[in-house]
Amino acid sequence: MERAAERVAVEREIEIAASPETVWSYLVDPVKAHRWWGRAISLDLRPGGALRVEVTMGSVASGVVLEVDPPRRLVYTWGWEVGGGGPELVPPGSSTVEIELVPSGEATTVRLVHRDLPGPESAEAHAQGWEHYLSRLATAAAGGDPGPDPWQSTD
Asked: Which runs of E-coded beta strand occur in the chain?
């Protein structure tokens, strides 16, 4: 009998010098989200709504919104149509991203958990991606300019 592969999670936490309402807007408004994450973003912000992100040229992820509790919690499925972790490893809908926003004085603590990744290699790749993009989110939501994303191709 074949044993199912162990699923792993990535957990990240970052404090952002902005209110939960401001951070929330950078998560769910495609125009604001584009400042820190991806080349193109579409989001139907309701349970069952579609999420699609062209993260970098040739890497497109998609999923379905599972929970929306503004400005506290956003949960959606995640997987790669092309590129990224590869649809053969992390197909659309096969993993789940949970984002919680917790007020912390004048700031917001963002807790992100990306569950059901297929193994340590995938978890490491996604951890690097989340660290990169969460730091850009922190800059943008705090009113700064994260500048051009160095991961984007200039072609």
From this structure: 8-16, 40-43, 50-56, 59-69, 73-82, 95-104, 107-117
Cα separation, 104 vs 81, in Å, equals: 36
pTM greater than the 0.90 cutoff: yes
| pLDDT, tens only, 81-116 | 988 766 678 999 999 999 999 999 999 999 999 999
Q: Where are the domains of the chain?
A: 8-141
What gap in Å lies between CA 111 and CA 115, rounded to an integer? Answer: 13
Look up the CATH number of domain 8-141: 3.30.530.20
One-character DSSP codes across 116-153: EESSHHHHHHHHHHHHHHHHHHHHHHTT----S-TTS-
Which residue, 114, 102, 120, is CA-closest to 12? 114
Q: Which amino acid is at 13?
A: E
